[in-house]
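Run 3-deoxy-D-manno-octulosonic acid transferase through structure prediction, thanks.
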Amino acid sequence: MYIPIFIISLFNKKTREFFKKRLFQDPENRNFLEKEEKAVFIHMSSVGEFNLSKELIEKLLEKKEKIIISVMTDTGKEAVTKAYGNNKNIKIIFFPLDDYFMLRKVYKNFSVKKTVIIETEIWPNLYQTAEKYSELYIINGRLTEKNMKTYRKIKPLIKKTLNKVKKIMIQSEEDKERYLDLGVKKEKIYVFKNLKYSIKYEILSEKEKKELLDNYTINGRKIIVCGSTRPGEEKIWIEVFKEININSVYQLIIVPRHLDRISEIADEIKQTFGEENFSLLSENKKNDIILVDKMGMLRDFYQLADFVFVGGTLVNIGGHSILEPLYYGKMPIIGEYYQNIEEIVKEAKKMKFIKIVKNKNEITEYLKKSEIIDTSDFFKKNDEIDKILKELYGD
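Sure, done. The structure for 3-deoxy-D-manno-octulosonic acid transferase is below.
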């Protein structure tokens, strides 16, 4: 395993750093556990899975558990460290890339008693080690059709690996069928509501909200926020805005998925509106169109919006999260490409809390109706975390 990694690392500093952090870290106990204490090991891929796990982590801390959090990505490690870096009951490590010897060291050093996988990261050595030294659980498990194409090719290995899990708590009946298709024993599978419905997002204070409104929005205008936009989507919304804003009724705020496209999007806006009708957020001035060139602002602007479009859906990306606008009471407008968020879209459709459009004309027609719907009820209180804890602890 290490020979090809060593060869690749010789030529690429970034790759060298990636493997060094994960395979040559020092997961020592060093007074983390008192005598006879055992830890709960939680593995997640990145920031998204961490956000899903926050309430579970808090509940485990209430139970006085010591927790090892394993993450795959640098951004995931940063997010967990920001939230729990100073908590003496939590140790944060990089996932050691399914290296059996490093995993065994972690499990022995920290006397791991329970292992929790968030969603479905299938690592044969992790599952083998976790089963040997602890009880192994999958929480919020899911399998996409894309995953299934790969897993079916190596079904004997996947079947053997997944059946090491004591309980698999999954998101939907469709996921249940996929697990069964891979040969997982039926009695191991439990269907729960998606943990995404348990997320609690930060809400702006009245002062913060007023400051944003005063600094960037035009009084009396209906605010359209286009979030996580992808190439091709901004052009559609620029054309829509040109058609509907003849009487200066609307303001358009575009928050692209990737900030390295700011210049490209700015050029598209200038071609239609010239320079005088749009501003970058960093310019700190009001305008018909504002292009957000700063990270971490999307949720704030969702809270100001009258209408929200969620990107990656008018072009074939598969869709980005619609949960934030729903949480803030804003009905998301999306295109027809939502395969990555299908289960949540299905739930929103049941409650008539989503608008699916095919093209520019349908967007324009919908906006002209000015139908503003409060979607706050989508996040009505649920007790999924408490149900999951009962499965983990049997109480």
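The mean pLDDT is 90.
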